[in-house]
Each structure stands twice: as C-alpha cells, then as structure tokens.
Specification:
By secondary structure, this protein is an alpha+beta fold. The protein has a single domain, classed as Aminopeptidase. The longest helix is centred in the middle third of the chain and has 15 residues. The chain is globular.
C-alpha cells in the first residue's frame, strides 16, 4: 500500500473517474444499463466534495462516493455510500479497504453517526467487503430490480460509527403504530 494516498476529488478528476465508473460496470453490480462512455461523472447528486479517491503517482485507482443521506434534515446524522469502484487492473490490492477506511474517517469528521449503503444481492464480493468493515445487513428489498429477466434483491447495509456513549438507546427509537412485540429491535 506504500505510495497509495487518498484525497477529495476535483473537477479535473472527472474524466478518470468516469473511465473507472464505465470500466467497472456489470449487471452484477449495477441495476441500470451501461451508459455512454462520455456521460459526466459529476452531476447534481455527485459533487467533487463528496468523492474520495485513491491515487498513486497521480494515477487514480478508485473512488468512493460519500454524501449526506438524501432524505430530510432529520437524517442529517447519516452519510451514505453511493458508489465504490476500483479500476479493474488495480483490484485485489486492498484499495477498496483503504477507500472504506477513508469514508468512515470522513463520516466521523462530518459528525455522522451512521453510514448506509445499498448493494445488489448479486454483488457478493462487495457485500463481503462491507461486512469485513463492520457493516451489517439491515434489510433486503426482495426482487427490487428486474435485470435481464431476473429479479434481483437490493440489500440495505449500515455501519454504526458513533461512540456507544453517544448512541440513542434503541428502546427509545420511535416506531409509530408498530407494537413493541412486532419490532425487530425489541426481539
């Protein structure tokens, strides 16, 4: 890992990031068809400030997109990983691990208490990576996507990153209209 560094993306990185995005596409990891190779990487949902990239000798090796959860102000304590990719010829070097470590550090710096993500049920390799970093499966949207005439699950994963002393007691979690006996957090 010597020589590999992590930094925040800039507009100048767009072409290299888009190339990695395009090169890592497969039906196992993306629910949408392959997009044109000249599709911009940065858009309304992906700003450079929300992309951390791994680089070596000024060559971009991979990235992770970490952004505030796109819900409401009430979920401001949550950051979301909305993409992680490593250039094919640099995979299996531990770069994904470095990027997840950097995402966790950035989330802590942003005062987040949780990191969430969604991953296709067919992307077992990514699920194993996330599990190795302490993410837990919190739910599965069964058959969420129809990909090549096959229903594919969308797996919801999360990582609690706040110190235990700052966590809200699960018993005080608000579940309007759901009796305690029917909630998973009380079973």
């Amino acid at each position: 890992m010597d020589g590999i560094a992590i930094r925040t993306a800039t507009e100048n990185d767009e072409r290299a990031l888009a190339a990695i995005d395009h090169a890592t596409w497969s039906r196992q990891v993306h629910p949408i068809p392959l997009w044109p190779s000249d599709t911009p990487f940065f858009d309304e949902g992906t700003a450079p400030r929300n992309v951390l990239l791994a680089h070596e000798d000024n060559h971009i090796l991979g990235y992770v997109k970490l952004r505030p959860a796109p819900m409401r102000a009430s979920s401001g304590h949550v950051q979301e990983i909305n993409g992680l990719a490593v250039a094919p010829h640099h995979q299996r070097r531990g770069i994904g691990h470095l990027l997840l470590d950097a995402a966790r550090a950035a989330a802590v710096e942003r005062l987040a208490r949780r990191i969430t993500l969604r991953v296709l049920g067919t992307n077992v390799r990514a699920q194993k990576l996330y599990l190795a970093h302490g993410f837990r499966i919190e739910g599965t949207l069964v058959g969420q996507f129809l990909i090549e005439d096959r229903y594919v699950d969308d797996v919801l994963m999360a990582l609690e990153i706040c110190p235990a002393t700052h966590r809200r007691d699960r018993a005080t979690t608000v579940h309007p209209g759901i009796p305690a006996s029917d909630r998973r957090d009380t079973l």
